[in-house]
Design the sequence.
């Protein structure tokens, strides 16, 4: 039996929230259905954030009430305790919270200090533990911050230790701006896997510099077996053609399968979901290997 | 001092030979001048092959007589002993020879048996040794053959041993069709580096499946420090948009520099060479990270 790699599909949240085109709730449910049909084991459905701040995510509660299939690990991003409560009320029992590793990123992104952000995260983690809600805690800008530059590995290791004390279901190291390199990824993830084991860890890469697959390979070498990815690589800035968003689900699946892991993804159906996404967005989506994969599945 | 990675720039040979547009000798000299100006330490100028078979490479002798700068490691591909003699007559003292690892690839590509190809290669290597000509011996389709499928690592290791006995200046493992995966690359290159040391080895990757940079990272982990690459990723099939050719010089340089190696390449000048190439070819060229690199160098 080959070892399994779990891909958490985030196009419907991290991908769509960056698009100028706002998909309807019906479109987003259709997209989730297509992704579920392609066999993704974990599926982020949206975020419980203010629709004024992120109109692309409005109606995530409606989506939660109309999930395409029953037996799938659905999750949603919650920005704070209010979002946590809204998500729970909507029936979502697996949440993502994001804490940036630097002071400036927290200040600029959510107008909170780093310390306040971590205290909020700990409160959510502690409450979730008592209520049986699983939390994936994301450490954002864990390699480089757009305001502060390079982020030290030692700082990240300390922050992870602080969060691990509050028992997240998963701690995800996030290269939010796509600035990580594979040597830094391998070094950090090896230390984390050695300390906490692979079950508690995940990686979230953006493919801005085309090093996404090299970073996934580096993380695999370090023992990481859980990765976020976005169908079609959705999430890039729509005003910079060629600037990719999240590492593409189809690219990650191809890489993992090529070196002997199983992902349980159905590639032709995944490419169908990418085609649906392209149609909805009104612009061609697709990972780095889109041409090759399309030919294979034709 | 950081460790050095040597990039052998092959756009003017492996890239151009696949293009339907035939550049003039003057254009090719201008391209080589732009690449030399960008600081590439090794530069393949063309091939001494029949102009009937590969008209794109006609006039490589004229190019050899008009090289842009003196102190650069120029080389040319020679398909056989006649090509070897033509290259020597043209003043080129560093040649590439390519031997496919499978029977079918040799039969289909050059209508010779695998054994005849290897005997020819050994004759060229032996003669070059007596005449002070450096040979880079390429083992083509070293991971997968378009006719025979997966190529066994044991077979390649044996073939490398056979060729090493004839003292090539470098033995280059070539993923001719872009089918390698990083785990296979790391496994094979680790064994070869352990046996022969990094100075005698190189890797040549195509980026068909977008795993080019992951493969470069895997080879770097194994100790490889010499890579072929092609400015702009030139070399893909011109009829399949998005199908990349050789791994792009700018992508490889970016990866290497990001993890602390030096390449001595000047990125803005390299992107100028890619722009010149785009203009000559009449279609935009560029590696996977083109958008990001262009913004960095703007």
Sequence:
């Amino acid at each position: 039996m080959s070892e399994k790699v779990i891909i958490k599909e985030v196009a419907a949240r991290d991908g769509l929230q960056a698009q100028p085109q706002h998909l309807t709730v019906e479109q987003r449910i259709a997209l989730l259905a297509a992704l579920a049909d392609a066999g993704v084991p974990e599926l982020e459905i949206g975020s419980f954030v203010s629709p004024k701040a992120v109109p692309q995510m409005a109606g995530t509660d409606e989506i939660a009430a109309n999930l395409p299939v029953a037996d799938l690990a659905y999750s949603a991003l919650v920005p704070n305790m209010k979002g946590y409560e809204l998500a729970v009320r909507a029936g979502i029992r697996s949440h993502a919270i994001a804490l940036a590793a630097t002071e400036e990123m927290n200040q600029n992104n959510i107008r909170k200090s780093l310390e306040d952000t971590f205290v909020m995260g700990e409160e959510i983690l502690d409450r979730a533990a008592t209520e049986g809600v699983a939390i994936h805690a994301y450490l954002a800008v864990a390699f480089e911050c757009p305001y502060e530059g390079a982020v030290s590995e030692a700082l990240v290791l300390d922050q992870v230790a602080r969060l691990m004390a509050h028992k997240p279901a998963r701690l995800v190291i996030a290269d939010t701006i796509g600035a990580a390199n594979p040597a830094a990824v391998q070094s950090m993830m090896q230390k984390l896997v050695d300390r906490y084991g692979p079950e508690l860890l995940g990686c979230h890469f953006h493919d801005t510099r085309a090093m996404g697959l090299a970073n996934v390979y580096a993380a695999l070498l370090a023992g990481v077996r859980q990765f976020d990815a976005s169908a079609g690589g959705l999430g890039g800035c729509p005003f910079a053609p060629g600037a990719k968003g999240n590492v593409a689900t189809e690219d990650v699946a191809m890489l993992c399968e090529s070196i002997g892991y199983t992902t349980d993804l159905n590639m032709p159906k995944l490419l169908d979901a990418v085609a649906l996404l392209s149609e909805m967005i009104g612009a061609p989506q697709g990972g780095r290997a889109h041409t090759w994969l399309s030919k294979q599945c034709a």
